[in-house]
Amino acid sequence: REKDITFPVSGRLCVTILRPHRYSLEDEPSNLDEMPLMMSEEGFENDESDYQTLPRARVNQRQRGLGWFLLGGWKVLCGSCCDCLAHICRRKKELKARTVWLGCPEKCEEKYPKNGIKNQKYNIFTFVPGVLYQQFKFFLNLYFLVVACSQFVPSLKIGYLYTYWAPLAFVLAVTMVREAVDEVRRYQRDKEMNSQLYSKLTVRGKIQVKSSDIQVGDLIIVEKGSVLGACFIRTDQLDGETDWKLKVAVGCTQRLPAVGDLFSISAYVYAQKPQLDIHSFEGNFTREDADPQIHESLSIENTLWASTVVAQVIGVVIYTGKETRSVLNTSYAKNKVGLLDLELNRLTKALFLAQVVLSIVMVALQGFVGPWFRNLFRFVVLFSYIIPISLRVNLDMGKSAYGWMIMKDENIPGTVVRTSTIPEELGRLVYLLTDKTGTLTQNEMIFKRLHLGTVSYGTDTMDEIQSHIFQSYAQVTSQPSSSSTSGATPSRKTQTSGPKVRKSVSSRIHEAVKAIALCHNVTPVYESHTGVNGETESAEADQDFSDDNRTYQASSPDEVALVRWTESVGLTLVNRDLTSLQLKTPSGQILSFYILQIFPFTSESKRMGIIVREESTGDITFYMKGADVAMASIVQYNDWLEEECGNMAREGLRTLVVAKKSLSEEQYQDFENRYNQAKLSIHDRTLKVAAVVESLEREMELLCLTGVEDQLQADVRPTLELLRNAGIKIWMLTGDKLETATCIAKSSHLVSRNQDIHVFRPVSNRGEAHLELNAFRRKHDCALVISGDSLEVCLRYYEHEFVELACQCPAVVCCRCSPTQKAQIVKLLQQHTANRTCAIGDGGNDVSMIQAAHCGIGIEGKEGKQASLAADFSITQFKHIGRLLMVHGRNSYKRSAALGQFVMHRGMIISTMQAVFSSVFFFASVPLYQGFLMVGYATIYTMFPVFSLVLDQDVKPEMALLYPELYKDLTKGRSLSFKTFLIWVLISVYQGGILMYGALVLFESEFVHVVAISFTALVLTELLMVALTIRTCLGCYLASLAFLNEYFDLSFITTWPFLWKVSAITLVSCLPLYIIKYLKRKFSPPSYSKLSS
């Protein structure tokens, strides 16, 4: 049958169809055309061509003419050329399958990458060009570079060279220092990771090697307590699951007498080429020196992965560095640019346009006489202060100040700002994409509820269960030891007396607890302890089943919680191997059971079963536990299961139904024969095995219903509520199972109690996706839960429609997501909504998502530091995100918006004065202020007061957290828009005109001093406009007047007329604005001022 094979490649889907076929009617429902996907309220009809093309393809078919080129097409073309050159320079080598000889790296046929981690953006050679490119790709800096270079042409030279080059050099120096510091930090972190020591096995014995020196073919020893022939690994850094997965060693090497014999055999591993898929591996192990040669097939069960936690094992290195699955699934870090920077870049382009228009007007008023083209360029340079060079310096220093404030905030200790260029993004977020395990939850399961149908036990009544268990086992041990029922179920008498008799609560509790203690995949592990003589003894050898050094390992934290609970009520799992397990009763007696069959949990069956034979009595029992949806049809009829499952789910508990069935020897033998036969069949093996097992799963006796809670991180519920009230939409992307994800969405109040949840049915083709999307379309205000596979199908055929629908949901949960898929969802939201996204996670599997989002937040948690190191901001707890966004995000955005516009105002006011000055003097292209006056105006005189805006706050932090609705205003971007910008332009034109004309009118007789008068009034106006920290800068200005003899006449500026006239001009320029501001505040106050009053 034709099928599509999909490979997730760098966050995009590359679909390879084995046999190309158009949309065929036998594959899909033929009536698809009759059911259009209604994406608007009116609904729209899809024609046949719509089915053949993706929305993105339709967008790309627009005409590309001269208009397209001028309106940004040139940028696209330049970007494509750069990408093409970069691709040629660092062309990836083709990945191939490989043969790896055990312990012989030198035998490798080709060179494999180093096993080093590298998170740096630049190296020694690319640092300077890289930083310069990042700076000059902004119109602002490129403009200054052109203006500064123009001063080398004598006919265009306006003032001193340093007035243009000094500020530009300062901007670049500040940026380079900041980037260099970030790079050095990254290098140090990488060095720390690459210097970790590992034990390598060589012919001469064990040696220590650095992580970066490990090669393909090396034998590495990873240590922690030993388990023979098998070990557990935890893959939280790859797929976010913190449960333990069983891994099996190669059978052939297990038979070697000593570790050193690995070098005496001639063996190699043939492995597939490196690939993205973290759930599959194919290879062969071959031992050549045996007669006949030994061949063993290798699967994913025989591999240990990078970034996982393991018990002791000796392994041969197959992939290193860039070719490991975890690195292949991680995208490269990109340089993030904030939305505010892009908005300011747009405004500077508008200013440049205004500057050119003003210059043309000046030349036109001159009458285009003489070398007017040269004059035009001189005017452009004269008015170049319209776009202030200090804008970038002020903003960059502001960003550094915000970062420092965030790190010094005592309310969010341990927060680290790793990317200092985007603190304003925290104030503009609309979508928050969060991981589940370790981010919202602690991944610590607690047993909360046991329900027996007629009676329910919670955490406060567990002691009753304990007393029942103690009682039942006390009865058993008090019977004569000769009795054959020693260690048997105390309820056997009840059973044999007749099936109609209702069992006592005590016996029902006992059966339920026993079933929970037996039906699982948990292995107790005992830490080795040091003996008297100092040598290490294995605890298992002495049967030292003491409680203090026992830990449990299992493939699911739920199972560990259940076994820990049976231990707390008196029935303890003390030992387990592949064929048997032992329980210890409250009185210390050991009960042994043989494991006859085990049916592991799968996401399809949603249940696991075990058949055990009790050693003392020979009774065979089939125990089973699973999700209520799977178990409801298997257990005998009852009237309480569905209702109680619903009640527990509403509390956010994960429910499991436990049942049992007693088997006679004949029944079991018949089953075993059929089961073994099914396992040997070549065709449809899985289906046949499932059918045989299902023949057992009939009319099982329902024992109990259990409820387990995954503990949430501290204050997750209030934080999510705060974010929701702030208008932020939260999407949960997790690698976990659908049921678990739904439970956590409820318990964390990600989905509020009165909201419905729409679980998107699994879809595999276009027709199913079409029907399911239509079904989802009819639901209103309900949360969406969808699995990764279904999501992939929807995005392949209905990308635009699906995203449009999902964005209307109050919450979205995506389960079974791969790391690449998480990043893909982030990019989808960015493309389709144009809103700012934030990703938060704590594991290595979240790195791609964190790097793809506009703003990435990492949590330092149990799953290591990989996410927090790759993120822009690192926090220690999820609850800190509330303050980070509501307080620091708000302040950073508001302050930077005010700062940016104020610095522009500073440039526009001086350009207006220059225009008035030139107009009066017959449109001469002569500068009003020269040399140090201009540099001083942009830096020393007005730098500190303008910069004091970074300390401004419109709302107290407590108020911002109390009324998160204030955050919604920020996402609309009203603090910095063309409207606010035009207001500042009008203010600048008014003030510049008043200052210059005032100086000319009031000082007719002393016209020589016009520079001193207007400049002093200008600086005073700027200081009054900020109305903060005036004293320091006024002092700077007054002190510098003494040294600037070439610009100021000291005898004149100390006279009384000078002082009163300057004060009068300043008053006229500022007073009307203060009055307007007061009236606006009185009659139309902003929302936050109402709160603070």
TrEMBL record:
Transmembrane segments: 162-181, 350-370, 903-926, 932-951, 981-1001, 1007-1027, 1058-1076
Record-listed E.C. numbers: 7.6.2.1
Compositionally biased region (Acidic residues): 537-546
Keyword list, A-Z: ATP-binding, Golgi apparatus, Lipid transport, Magnesium, Membrane, Metal-binding, Nucleotide-binding, Translocase, Transmembrane, Transmembrane helix, Transport
Annotated residues for binding of Mg(2+): D435, T437, D842, D846
Secreted listed as a keyword: no
Active-site residues annotated for this sequence: D435 (4-aspartylphosphate intermediate)
Membrane topology: Multi-pass membrane protein
Residue intervals of the P-type ATPase C-terminal domain: 869-1085
GO molecular function annotation: ATP binding; ATP hydrolysis activity; ATPase-coupled intramembrane lipid transporter activity; magnesium ion binding
Pfam families: Hydrolase, PhoLip_ATPase_C, PhoLip_ATPase_N
Cofactor or coenzyme needed: Mg(2+)
Chain intervals with Low complexity compositional bias: 476-491
Residues involved in ATP binding: D435, K436, T437, E559, F601, K625, R654, T734, G735, D736, R816, K822, N845, D846
Compartment(s) of residence: Golgi apparatus, trans-Golgi network membrane; Membrane
GO cellular component: endosome; plasma membrane; trans-Golgi network
Name the record gives this protein: Phospholipid-transporting ATPase
Organism: Lates calcarifer
